[in-house]
Amino acid sequence: MALVAGSTARLWTLVAREFWRKTRRRLRAGPIYRWRYSGRTPERVLIAPPDLRLADPQIALEIYYGRYPLSGHLVETGGRSPFQLEVPNRGWQKSLHGFRWLRHMRATGTELAAANARALVTDWIAMHGNQISGVAWEPGTTAKRVIAWLQHSSVVLQGAEFPFYRAFLKSLAMQIRYLRSMAREMPDGEGRLRARIALAFAALSLPAPASALRSATRNLAEELEHQILPDGGHISRKPMAVLELLADLLPLRQTYANQAEAPPSALIGAIDRMLPALRFFRHQDGSLARFNGMGATIHDRIATIMRHDDTVGAPLLHAPHSGYERLSMGGVTVIADTGPPPPVDVSIAAHAGCLAFELSSGRQHFIVNAGIDTYGAPEFRPLARATAAHSTATVNDTSSARFSHSLRVSDLLGSPLIGGPQHVPCKRLDQKGMQGFVARHDGYAAQFGFLHERELKLASNGNVLTGRDRFLRQGGGAIRNNGRDFVTVRFHVHPDISVLQDDHDRFTLAAAHGDTWVFTCAEVVPEVEESIYFAGLSGPRRSRQIVLAFKASEIAEVHWQLTRTNVAGYPENN
């Protein structure tokens, strides 16, 4: 209970801090502070940094005709400027004001696309350029917009007359000064790091004194050292954060080189760690494991980033700082969550999925977590984040970590994860011809009085995955039969997999064009139940799950096995 009380106290400290931060932000947006954001207008853009995010000329055409497909939501403007519309979808608004969609116009390469880009930037400056408020001026959105305007300045300024050229640079300079003022007070996490990246881009891309570049470089280095873990993961434990940040950090490294400036060692080191980390989270089909806010993967995005990875050999198997383990042999990949929740400050997307795992064989996923519907209705997020949406054990249908659903909290912080496992010891069990680990967590100890321990071993050239789930009281002793010891071990099956049962209570998991796996359990008769897979490319899909249900006071340990019986000709993992 002391741990829960401590997490709650930490949460309310964050609420107070965020309230004060927003108050200061409103003050800084007012007339008293606004003069600080005025100043000298740069004469020109020295260099347009590269953009690694995928571009689609078809989207530029849609935008030309007044259709804006942003953040999974399509808005038709009916001939009006999109910046005049009041669209209730907050994700769409952030995407609109973030201007990353300029890359689609740049990919088109036509004068018409350049003119449309220039018209939209003109609209934004006229409607929002001098009114520092709302979504448009949230520091995280401002950072994305600064980066996008710099990266795509060539298309925006193509054929521009002098008045627009000056207005563009004047607005850009104002946004940079505002972001420099706000960056130090932004909440911990990805947004604050991106703000430091944006300011480094600005110091390299615009005429600026050497002191400005030194300051931007120093602040960037400090933030990288704080947020990028020694194994290359991000402090939020989000696989997607690694991908998104690399999409900004790799062009930044190139921009330092293009300007003949030495990049900070922290930037070089972070990239060198993050690229192998991205490979660590990657299944053989190119998708990322569905942990902690990960939804559907756009495979080409991963491939674009991975082209910059010069690492030779197989991905790492052990990410102790991020809290994940990987087993890989014979074309089979197992990725497991073996870490405690991230700090409350950066846990808005965190899941209660401790000791959950995913299994892919060749290019087909068999055992998965439900993932999230990235652009779906927010009311489904709590379901996707719950322990029951992961391939692990739940006790009494309760998640192993708690989420804050207070309206007062959500208005300021979203829905952070509070409580949950505090200690998750993990040990590798690798031997010749076998990879494995054993880990346990105490997420249920305070409420139900016992621990969950899971052991996974992959052997026989990837043909056999054996698992053991054990439930034990802290300090030893038998688990009491008190009506609070009901355990459900779930194995969520990918919706593309058929599940068939034979007369011996064995379940066959068969891909349409791939491997076949057989699931067996020694102590409990498995059952199949309905499930939902949130991370489908086209949205949530119906799926199924294999379930082992029992009382821990009667069966304290279960042994199960997944055996590959029909092997397709897949190459080794890489």
From TrEMBL:
Pfam families: Hepar_II_III_C
Single Gene Ontology MF annotation: lyase activity
Compartments, as annotated in UniProt: Periplasm
Ranges for domain Heparinase II/III-like C-terminal: 313-561
Record-annotated membrane-spanning stretches: none
This protein's UniProt keywords: Lyase, Periplasm, Signal
GO cellular component labels: periplasmic space
Principal location listed in the UniProt entry: periplasm
InterPro entries: Chondroitin_lyas (IPR008929), Hepar_II_III_C (IPR012480)
PANTHER family named in the record: HEPARIN-SULFATE LYASE
Protein name: Heparinase
The organism's taxonomic lineage, starting at the top: Bacteria, Pseudomonadati, Pseudomonadota, Alphaproteobacteria, Hyphomicrobiales
